[in-house]
Specification:
The complex is a heterodimer of chains A (about 350) and B (about 180). Chain A is α/β, with parallel strands linked by helices and about 350 residues long. Chain A contains 13 helices and 14 strands. Chain B has a single domain, classed as Pyruvate-ferredoxin oxidoreductase, PFOR, domain III (Pyruvate-ferredoxin Oxidoreductase, domain 3). Chain B has a 6-stranded mixed beta sheet, sandwiched between helices. Chain B is globular, with a radius of gyration of 15 Å. The chains are: A alpha/beta (about 350), B alpha/beta (about 180). Chains A and B meet through helix 8, strand 8 and helix 10 of A and helix 1 and strand 2 of B.
Chain lengths: ~350, ~180
């Protein structure tokens, strides 16, 4: 298979097209602009729809319309724009509309800056809008995963009738890496629930998130929670590299997992036993593997481009069975390989759990 | 083997392009590669730079802070990055714009009058290619043939008529390395 060099943002966009995405709605914001730029050129070539909406709020509601009519619909933005979309995302979750939302995150809070960030972890994984809901959240760690996970995201969105988020950041989006693109797929998913016209059915399909009668709303929430438990059982993904013999395991996703990997390679070359646990799904979170590794006496270091968000899930999963340390960089700065290397070394020298 | 490079200069000197050519060239030789641009407000007026990693293993951090090789096309970039190069590493610098450069012990340093050579070739814009030619001559990190093939992939079709000029500039740069 031929490898081609693509920016992460472009790889993600082409991956979406190959996975049958034919509806893109967005509003410009750095550092994700390569996605709408690419889609503006590419969608007409595959008879798809590209609309630059008048706002993020408009774009997410266009996703509701296209997804509700059974199309594979995508929107992308970056942190402040994703905040604007939260009302729509909650409605999409409540109405169980399959769709994919991409956050190429940048530093916040507020308007923030253009630098990469992982400080939208809480917003992505804990429900950024109102109500008891979850998105499935994928965190690509390579250009290839930008392609592969967006395809998977559309499949899982339809399988569970649930919005799926790709949470990545400015570095992953701007970096070029060789990728192998899969062929364009025909999507054949049956969607008897889609609002495509009544056509012989006795009852019209209705997609909304309204439960004005208390019992109805409770029933909707029970249904959603049952779905989330099923997702937690079936959809957890992670990469464990060198965790078997490791004394210390770094937990990191996306960009920081790359920085950590470089530091770990240096330490391994010196004979130090350090491993990497990289969550690929941020929700559902890989709790069990962390609990198991903690029970084996491992200790953990969480590395993030935030003041500490992923670390809370790691602490919950480890549940006092092991020591969890944290190294984070404030928005506006990126951890260097040397910093992570020095942090791990210092922890190993201190020793003890 | 993992080799890390920073290409730096003024915006408009084509440092992003030579970084891309190194990355593409590495990919065409079957290596794992990454290319990462500096971006954002710093691109207006100041120095632009990109990080390139070429490796036999999966690439970890795409951001290079301690390069094995540096291509510096102007004074500010040379000043910014000269102290970050690993011992035993290589610096190719544009001596058309950097008149006096300190000798840094433990590094291979090659001054290349890229603008002068490019002007001799009749197009000042290929100064970056002269630097790249000298860099691959000095480090052997990719072959000239790979750089040439990369040009075909990186340059848009409408600029392909300029490939012979770019190749001539690469060769001129390479010829500076004994």
């Amino acid at each position: 298979m031929e490898r081609v060099m693509m920016k992460g943002n472009e790889a993600l966009a082409e991956g979406a097209i190959r996975a049958g995405c034919r509806f893109f709605f967005g509003y410009p914001i750095t550092p994700q602009n390569e996605i709408p730029e690419y889609m503006a050129r590419r969608m007409p070539e595959v008879n798809g729809v590209f609309i630059q909406a008048e706002s993020e709020v408009s774009a997410i509601n266009m996703v509701y319309g296209a997804g509700g009519a059974g199309g594979r619909a995508l929107t992308s933005s970056s942190s402040p724009g994703i905040s604007l979309k939260q009302e729509g995302i909650s409605y999409l979750a409540g109405a169980q509309v399959p769709c994919v939302i991409v956050n190429v995150a940048r530093g916040g809070p507020g308007l923030g800056g253009l630098t990469p960030s992982q400080s939208d972890y809480f917003q992505a994984t804990k429900g950024g809008g109102h109500g008891d809901y979850h998105l499935i959240v994928y965190a690509p760690g390579t250009g290839q995963e930008m392609v592969d996970l967006i395809g998977l995201a559309f499949d899982k969105a339809e399988e569970y009738r649930n919005p799926v988020m790709i949470l990545t950041d400015a570095i992953m989006g701007q970096m070029m890496e060789p990728v192998i693109l899969p062929p364009i797929r025909e999507v054949t998913t049956e969607k008897p629930w889609a609002t495509t016209g009544k056509k012989g059915r006795a009852k019209p399909n209705l997609i909304n998130s309204l439960g004005i009668i208390g019992e109805d709303l409770a029933r909707i929430n029970i249904e959603l929670q049952e779905k989330y438990r099923k997702i937690e059982t079936n959809e957890i993904r992670y990469e464990a590299d060198g965790t078997g013999d490791a004394d210390l395991i770094v937990v990191a996703y996306g960009t920081t997992s790359r920085v950590a990997r470089s530091a770990i390679n240096m330490l391994r070359a010196e004979g130090k036993k350090v491993g990497l646990l990289r969550p690929i799904t941020l929700w559902p979170f890989p709790k069990q593997i962390l609990a198991d590794l903690a029970a084996q006496g491992k200790r953990f270091l969480v590395v993030e481009m935030s003041v500490g968000q992923l670390v809370e899930d790691v602490i919950l999963a480890v549940n006092d069975r092991a020591k969890v340390d944290f190294f984070g960089k404030l928005n506006g700065t990126v951890p260097t390989v040397r910093e992570v290397y020095n942090t791990i070394n210092a922890l190993l020298q201190k020793g003890g759990a | 083997m993992t080799y890390e490079i920073i290409c730096a200069g003024f915006g408009g000197q084509g440092v992003m392009l030579i970084g891309e050519l190194l990355a593409y060239g590495g990919m065409l030789e079957g290596k794992n590669v990454t290319w990462f641009p500096s971006y954002g407000p710093e691109m207006r007026g100041g120095t632009a730079n990109c990080s390139v990693v070429i490796s036999d293993q999966p690439v970890g951090s795409p951001i290079v802070s301690e390069p094995d090789g540096l291509i510096a096309m102007n004074g500010p970039s040379f000043e910014k990055f000269k102290g970050t190069v690993k011992p035993g590493g290589a610096i190719v610098y544009n001596s058309s714009m950097i008149e006096t450069a300190p000798v840094i012990p433990g590094l291979k340093m090659l001054p290349v009058p890229t603008n002068d050579i490019a002007s001799e070739l009749g197009n000042n814009k290929v100064a970056n290619m002269v630097a790249l030619g000298a860099f691959i001559g000095l480090t052997k990190i990719i072959t000239l043939a790979s750089a040439e093939k990369a040009l075909e992939q990186v340059l848009p079709e409408r600029h392909h008529k300029l490939i012979p000029l770019n190749v001539a500039a690469l060769e001129k740069g390479m010829a500076l390395v004994k």
